Amino acid sequence: MQSAIHPLWRDATPWYRHRWPWFLMIGPVLVLVAGAITAWLAVSRPDALVVGDYYKQGKAINQDLRRDRVASSLGLRFSARHDVRAGRLEGRLESHGKPVPAPFHIRLAHPTQPEKDLVLEALPDANGRFAAALPVLEHTHWQVVVEGAARDWRLARSWSPARQDVLAIAADAR
User: Which whole-number Å values give the CA distances from 157 to 17, 35, 150, in the listed order?
Assistant: First the structure.
């Protein structure tokens, strides 16, 4: 009596000994690994740019616009230079061409990492000149906000210290 197995199948090797099934499985396995890594990154690293209370944020934007208009009415002009060797930011604040001797704040916001944000306290002299300690800045595009100590006015601009030696901000004339 002959075997019921077809002669072509009698000497066939099992599927897992062939290369093609393994080669075809590489794609789906890589997709599963990449999906797992993406899910882990999404869960383990919260997005710092997302704001929870949009209404409150919108009210803050309107307040910032009001402070910009106050800066315009005061005719404020701010200029500063980062002295890397001395580790200082030196400059001057003027109102309609006259020095402003009142203290103010300079906020430097990092574009992607809030923990690197800096706040400098500027105490100008009678001529409106100030010097504030400033460490070496990362070569990136900083958002600079200069505001009064009472937060009643504001000047804002972006600044790249590596490309721009002088930071100059003038209130828009409205």
Answer: 65, 39, 20
Q: Which two tokens stand for residue 136?
A: 């070496």
The pair of structure tokens assigned to 38 is 């993406």
Under 8 Å between Cβ of 106 and 119 = yes
Copy the structure tokens of residue 18.
């062939």
Q: What is the pLDDT of residues 69-113, one digit of tens each?
A: 888 888 999 999 988 888 889 999 999 889 988 999 999 998 888
State how far the Cα of 169 lies from the Cα of 157, in Å rounded to an integer. Answer: 7
Phi, psi for residue 172 in degrees, rounded to 5: -65, 135
Using one digit for the tens of pLDDT, what is the confidence trace for 139-149?
A: 888 899 999 88
DSSP reduced 3-state for 47:
coil
Q: How far is Cα 74 from Cα 150, in angstroms, rounded to an integer?
A: 15
pTM above 0.70, yes or no: no
